[in-house]
Amino acid sequence: MVDEKLALADLAEALRNTKQTDSLAPSLLRILQTVTSFESVYLTRVDEERGVQSIMHAINSGSLSIPEGLEVPWSDTLCRRAIEQRQYETDDVSQCWGDSEAASELGITSYVSRPVYVGEQQELYGTLCAASTEQQKPSEATSQLFDIFTSLIARQVERDLMIERLQHEQIELRQSAHTDPLTGLWNRRGLASQVIELQKNVKRPLHVAYIDLDGFKAINDLYGHDEGDRFLIAIAQALISHLPTTAIVARIGGDEFAVVQEADSDDAQQSEVILHKLLASLTSGRFRTLNRVIDYAGPSIGIVTANEQNRRLEDWLKLADQAMYQIKKSRRKQQR
Questions:
Q1: 3-state SS class at 188
Q2: What phi and psi, each to the nearest 5 degrees, are found at residue 235?
Q3: pTM of the prediction?
Q4: What residue stretches are annotated with the GGDEF domain (predicted)?
Q5: CATH of the domain at 144
């Protein structure tokens, strides 16, 4: 006879030290096997869309071995039959479900199962099961223990899913706080955080480019704000598609973009000239939006090389902005 006090102590220890289903389930399975003497006890996950049942955790003894990681067609499982027929225990599987090829191949004679439902909609997560090749009639205590453990696992799964959802929401919130919702580029705050990370890995000075889309207001006035937004998206796509993956591209204003990139050679001045030509070619010419083709003469671009580590990004952006403004003044004079 199993020492009930010892089993209760094991249960208390499992609950006290458990933070996730992956740590709770093995402890509960060990207790189940000790108390019930079934050869195999296991927790499964059911994916009804894929039609697959997977063994997540298993404890085996005797001649029956149900391995963790095993995937079987949901349609041929004892668990599915038990749920559909609401018969969760038997000591004669062949009589109840003689059509189950899997049970026949494994030689399962006795079987206990409980569906694990989670969430407000009580969706099927998986099953808690025990099986044996010997005829073994489940006792009332075994049935009660399965009910209790199924409830414990369901609550733990719900907590895991809630934590996972909250973590995902936190990531989305951080991303939304650092990205421009229209173009998907970094915003000014995101640019600052990315530059900090970039500075940890570069060996050459950084180029800081300030891009102002001259004439953007005219595009909005002529084609409408929706087309104007699509034009901004097209500009963003042109930049991120053709600049190095290490370059940081951001939208820092309505029609203003910034690019921060490591110099591509030890000759920073020459590297700056090459970057200016590249940015000018990427942001001028013919752009296709949803409803039309826009021929764009190009923006004003100012670039500075951040070769002093003690300056902040905002300082370099101001200098790049000033350089851009000089370009803009020069272009205006040429247009007169």
A1: helix
A2: -60, -45
A3: 0.56
A4: 204-336
A5: 3.30.450.40
Please classify residue 172 by burial: count the beta carbons closer than 10 Å to its beta carbon, then call 0-12 exposed, 13-18 middle and 19+ buried. Answer: exposed
Note whether 200 and 70 are same-domain residues: no
Pairing type for strands 248-251 and 71-73 reads: unpaired
Identify the pLDDT of residue 190: 92
Apex 167 CA angle, 163 and 170, nearest 5: 140
What is the Cα–Cα distance from 294 to 233, expressed in whole angstroms?
13
Which stretches of 200-300 are DSSP H helices? 216-223, 225-242, 268-282
Is 264 labeled as catalytic in the residue annotation? no
User: Distances in Å between the alpha carbon of 195 and those of 246, 250, 256, 258, 313?
Assistant: 10, 11, 18, 12, 8
Residue range 151-195, pLDDT digits in tens: 999 998 898 888 888 887 777 777 678 999 999 999 999 999 999
Q: Are residues 40 and 149 in the same domain?
A: yes
Q: Are residues 216 and 293 in the same domain?
A: yes
pLDDT at site 119: 87
